[in-house]
Amino acid sequence: MRNIKDYCLGLGFVMLLFSCGKSSNNTSTPVTPAPSSFMFSGLKVNGKNSGFSYSNINSKPAIAITFSTPLSRTSTAASISLSSKAGVAAAFNTAYQNNDSTIVITPTGLSPITQYTLAVTTGLKSAKNDSLQSPLSVQLITAIDSSRKFSTISDDQLLDLVEQQTLKYFYDFGHPTSGLARERNTSGDVVTTGGSGFGIMAIIAGVSRGFISHADGLARMQKIVSFLNTKAQKFHGAFPHWMNGATGAVVPFSAQDNGADLVETSYLMQGLITARQYFNASNTNETQLRADINTLWNGVEWDWFRQGDQNVLYWHWSPDLGWAINMKITGWDEALIVYVLGASSTTHPIPKSVYDQGWAKNGAIKNGNTFYGVNLPLGPDRGGPLFFSQYSFMGINPKGLSDAYANYQTQNEAHATINYKYCVANPLGNNGYSADCWGLTASDIENGYTASSPTNDVGVIAPTAAIASLPYTPNQSMAALRFFYYTLGDKLWGQYGFYDAFNLTNPWFASSYLAIDQGPIVVMTENYRTGLLWNLFMSAPEVKAGMKNLGFSSPNL
Q1: This prediction's pTM
Q2: 155-549 is classed in which CATH architecture?
Q3: Topology of domain 37-142, per CATH?
Q4: What are the Glycoamylase-like domain coordinates in residue numbering (predicted)?
Q5: Contact criterion met (CB below 8 Å) for 180 and 191
Q6: Do the beta carbons of residue 231 and residue 247 sit within 8 Å?
Q7: N- or C-end of the chain: fewer Cβ atoms within 10 A?
């Protein structure tokens, strides 16, 4: 026995020692063998390999996945799934190749512009009953269905349709008590001051085109103006960003933004002045409407928002926090209208020095650089979001307009053209961007909101951006409008016109409508077609005088 033990110890076989040493108290521990596994070895979609992510695929792609060993066919049904981003399962057929080591998955029909995930779990077995070593996940994004979703109509009919359908957001969906525009289609009683100004201008366009009767349009204006005069909270004549459309009480936009918003108030006054100029009959109702609008217009204390006679205007004021936000309104952005109206006021005007030093920053708003072959007179590099060239210019006519800092027709055409050319160049490789699919501005994004621009491009296109640029880029904007309607219309066109935004890279289509995005579609389309809102706003004698006092020149002044 000793010789055997010595032999075992010499070889270092511990287990044999234990088996030979009968007097030992140690017990043996069985070793469980590691389970056998097999591996993934190749993937092709429609015969091509590009990793684990594929875009612009057809509705019935052939997805061939190869493994290191033949598969057990009975395990595939439970271990392979195909589902959309929303979790909806997609049916598919399976076939086998290469002695069952390759499985070919062919969907029976995927929806266009949809993201799918093909998942393979470790429950997949080989013919020898081994398990797949690691799970697989393949991302698939289907291509655009280029077929026309609606019957072809003339461009003029299409523009009529877009104006009329989009107008419904402000007229049909206007708040029942106040008539003001809800912030968005899910806002309940929350109405928006600036968006209501845009909506007022949209309703005027609708009356002019016969979409709404003159009597109905007048009645809506009376409801809106009466509410603003008798119920809506005001602070030194200025309105909050949001209000309760039933009571007129402030709905805070943020913790400190619970009082006056001078920019939003300016958009509202832009609309009200336009309405005053439109409803110009001598009858009692329209005479009273104009008087009531003047009460609101004359009540705004523009000069008070200089915060102690500074040569700049301030955006916000809170009744309990005062100037806590302390945000100056300086250019170049969407707020030119604030300074134009401040200079146009006959009760609380601002001097030219406030415009020059506050808004224009003594000329620092100038840019002068060239982007995509286009010289940009003002503002941030590559122009910023397109609402810069739209919100103030719903009423201010940029055609032939200039001052010490820029020609505004040149500025706005350059801004829109750079935005267009950026999308065509598509430096980030976003899916779908093209000469027919462009337009970056503030809009909803998936699970949020952002001000998209060439320097903040998250892959989201907003129809309002290109459509409201019709006065500046008519051919490019019309091409985009046709694409949005005819090609994407089954996903993008709804009860109040185009939904707010979409993303073709990580497919997503908004279900939302926003007043500040719907309004420019109607107003700028009408300005492109007839100049109606431009002509009305620019006809106001106070506006003419105020803009001249700031140094503007134009055939329309």
Answers
A1: 0.92
A2: Alpha/alpha barrel (1.50)
A3: Immunoglobulin-like (2.60.40)
A4: 328-540
A5: yes
A6: yes
A7: N
